[in-house]
Amino acid sequence: MNSRYYFNDTSAQKSDEQIKNLSLQNLIKNSSPFLGNMSAPITIIDFSDFQCYLCNRYVKNTEPIINQTYVQTGKVALVFKHLPNRGFDSMGAALAAQCMNDQEKFWQFHKLLYANQKPIDSGWVSKENLKKFALQIPGLDIKQFDSCFDSEKYKSFVQKDIDLGLSSGFKETPSFIIENSDGSNPEFLAGALPFPSFKAVIEKKISGS
Amino acid sequence: MREEKKTPIPSSKRLLLILSFKMVFSTWTYIIFAVATTVTFWIVSSIFDQLLFFYPIVIFYLPDDALVGFILVNITAIILGIVVSMNIYVFRHSKMKINITSFFSGSSLSVISSTCASCSSLGFFLISTLGAAGVTASSFVSNYQTPLRLLSIALLIWAYYSISSKITKSCIMNSSNSSK
User: Would the CB atoms of A54 and B121 count as touching at under 8 Å?
Assistant: First the structure.
């Protein structure tokens, strides 16, 4: 496996079809990791990179409050999309995380990587270290994970996430789409916004629906 | 033999710095220039650092991980305001030309390095524009944010010292010319 990547933006053409296919049902059917209730009226799609320190800021400061206030109460479902644009090692981290989703361990791995985040491309998410992180996930079938990760099973999946991020006009991570669960009325937000910013959009959507 | 009356020359460097500061900021115009520069730089840096947001609501937010950077940006903004204002003073009052090399290597480089310390949020732009070189540049500015900011403060202090010397030198020359 080539351990160094950077994505190309040749497929950055706006695709209306991609935007239309953002219903929660479709996202889950297409193997996107998600948190929350499938009947939640609002969906937040989070485009992040495991090497991005601003994504880490969002994960540490904002996501727990969103989770507690809206996800646990069934109002919002949180979906993760990969936008590995920060360094050469970012794609490897995205592939490993997506392989974790096969065994429903994505969010544990997500938490573990952000808790151990180090400077970009310092080797902390090299292929070897990603496998070491995988060993720390309880109940994980390591053989299945290694097979998925070594074969780059989700490379085209991650590339589709990147294409979706670019077609949505995102130029930085983290970026978010907040929409109704059927994919309608999307609102695009960029940056590691604090909780009150999310609250303003979510409450507006809840009161409008 | 008649003793020549000499203009007192401040001997220590500290006095030079204080004297030049007092000369410039005794006029409201330069205080306004300094405040405007400081506020503008502070707002731009806070936007780049993702501390200040205008959409969907206007909000300023200071998480723990941003505290050190925020303190350094505040220091940079204040010194930058002073240095820019002093450069304008020299430009308007002195017959001497501003030393372009000094100005660019001091004030401008400080602005660039400090802003670039925050430009990691432009990772995608750098990557799509410059490819692999952009990835390296983006990760460099992200990983070395704090040292870059410290460097910019050091450069600004040097620029302040440099411009202070110019202001007091021209003042001493003027006063010795007028005493002849």
Answer: yes
Tell me the longest C-alpha to C-alpha distance in chain B: 80
- Give the torsion sign (CA, A100, A104, A109, A110): positive
Q: Which of B46, B125, B135 to mutate to test the interface with A (most CBs of A within 10 A)?
A: B135
- CA of A9 to nearest chain B CA: how many angstroms apart? 7
> A173 to chain B: which residues are within 8 Å by CB?
123-124
Distance CA A28, CA A83 (A): 18
Query: Alpha carbon of B33 to those of B29, B78, B85, B88, B90: distances in Å?
Result: 6, 12, 6, 9, 13
From the list B53, B142, B117, the residue with the least C-alpha distance to A85 is B142
A121 contacts in B (CB within 8 Å)?
135, 139
Does B122 touch chain A if contact means CB atoms closer than 8 Å? yes
One pLDDT digit (tens) per residue for chain A, 209 residues: 333 343 444 444 445 555 568 899 999 999 999 999 999 999 999 999 999 999 999 999 999 999 999 999 999 999 999 999 888 999 999 999 999 999 999 999 999 999 999 999 999 999 999 999 999 999 999 999 999 999 999 999 999 999 999 888 888 899 999 999 999 899 999 999 999 999 999 999 999 86
Residue B19 to residue B46: CA distance in whole angstroms: 32
Q: Which of B59, B66, B139 sits opposite A86 (nearest CB)?
A: B139
Residues of B in contact with A205 (CB under 8 A): none
State the complex-level ipTM. Answer: 0.86
- The CA distance from A204 to A206, in Å, is 6
Domains of chain A with CATH codes: 16-208 (3.40.30.10)
